[in-house]
Amino acid sequence: MAQVARKQSMLLQFIVTFFVFLSCLNNGNAGITSTFIRSEWPATDIPLENEAFRVPNGHNAPQQVHITQGDYDGRAVIISWVTPDEPGSNKVQYGKSEKNYEFTAEGTMNNYTFYKYQSGYIHHCLVGDLEYNTKYYYKIGSGDSAREFWFKTPPQIDPDAAYKFGIIGDLGQTYNSLSTLEHYMQSGGQTVLFVGDLSYADRHQYNEIGLRWDTWGRLVERSTAYQPWIWSTGNHEIDYMPDLGEVTPFKNYLHRYATPHLASKSSSPLWYAIRRASAHIIVLNSYSSFVKYTPQWSWLRDELKQVDREKTPWLIVLMHIPIYNSNNAHYMEGESMRAVFESWFVQYKVDVIFAGHVHAYERSYRISNIRYNITSGDRYPVPDKSAPVYVTVGDGGNQEGLAGRFIDPQPEYSAFREASYGHSTLEIKNRTHAFYHWNRNDDGKKMATDAFVLHNQYW
Ligand SMILES: [Fe+2]
């Protein structure tokens, strides 16, 4: 009897497999909407007093330490930190061996208020003239409260320089955020491309808004003190709150996070470009003007002309609002920027565009909609070999939770989509090939859920 039952079950399995196979054939190149069932922590922020936000020991000890690239080509870093009680020292001591700090750089200090919240003393220090491919140790603060960290400079700009980027978006400060951060830190990524929406402090009220910018800085320090995070801004950085008398957009963000915008001749820290190893990275701001003749538009037009694919074959663009998104959340919000910039992205053969905003993961095929105009009927995106791949990684794990409702049926341009928390990595091997992975938190550290080989658009 048992044998008969087993045979019947094998037959049933065979039939099911056969039909799954058939349906795959029928769909051809159709995209995948993953139905993975995930476990997740509640989408609430970690309590203020939690160990994840631990304040370092010692009077006025530097906290919220973070670094970013400080120049165009990767020979400088900007080191930033906050001293809570008094201004303290602006100095960074640094050198190439541990505890042996041969050099000193002097930074600047500022503070600000937001409603009745009074910020700590925020320090930014440019450390330049570094050697490529070198580990540097650095020390900030003084006496018993001093703290020491390290970072590695990238290889010299070279078309075949290998480098591994992480991509994180919409991170926030929940246990899901911490899980994403810890998974990223196990990935071997060397620099984070952050696609906007940092702290979600604006989901809190009154003085807690400022405090939640502080806790976020302490949460991410475990990574940001040791490797550059390349910042772009999202709607949760705007902090436009007329009810509290706060009407200067990006006030919290701009005091705390510096970018090397002058090195790429940008007039605003909110949009800029850097070159790192074999990549040219363009950071756009979805929430500053970008229509024709605005500063961001003019800057991008000029910056794209600077891109030299012979030196930096990989052209990557970061923005917050995705241009191609088939989730119900934020559907069509990227349309205005698509109408203005998409033809440039195709003309300059951008390799990949990373965005956030939608709290899910999605990847597109290479498609464009540049033939569309309001009098022609060509209004549907079509396959386009010169177009970028569009990736949405707004799935860092913030307190707004996941965006689980996708538009059905899945549009033809959408290759893979899933509402789970995670991060991506882009591992550039040489001028022609890069390995891309999306890593779902639930799968532990080595499991890539969506992966493909990215072929360079120029070489
Ligand atoms: Fe957003």
Automatic annotation (TrEMBL):
GO molecular function: acid phosphatase activity; metal ion binding
Cross-referenced InterPro entries: Calcineurin-like_PHP (IPR004843), Metallo-depent_PP-like (IPR029052), MPP_PAP (IPR041792), PAPs-like (IPR039331), PAPs_C (IPR025733), PAPs_N (IPR015914), Purple_acid_Pase-like_N (IPR008963)
Coiled coil feature spans: none
Listed Pfam families: Metallophos (PF00149), Metallophos_C (PF14008), Pur_ac_phosph_N (PF16656)
Keywords: Glycoprotein, Hydrolase, Iron, Metal-binding, Signal, Zinc
UniProt KW Hydrolase keyword: yes
Catalytic activity: a phosphate monoester + H2O = an alcohol + phosphate
Domain Purple acid phosphatase C-terminal stretches: 387-445
Sequence ranges assigned to domain Calcineurin-like phosphoesterase in this UniProt record: 164-361
Signal peptide feature range: 1-30
EC class: hydrolase
Cofactor(s) named in the record: Zn(2+); Fe cation
Limits of the Purple acid phosphatase N-terminal domain: 62-153
E.C. designation(s): 3.1.3.2
Family classification: Belongs to the metallophosphoesterase superfamily. Purple acid phosphatase family.
Record-given protein name: Purple acid phosphatase
Organism: Parasponia andersonii
Lineage: Eukaryota, Viridiplantae, Streptophyta, Embryophyta, Tracheophyta
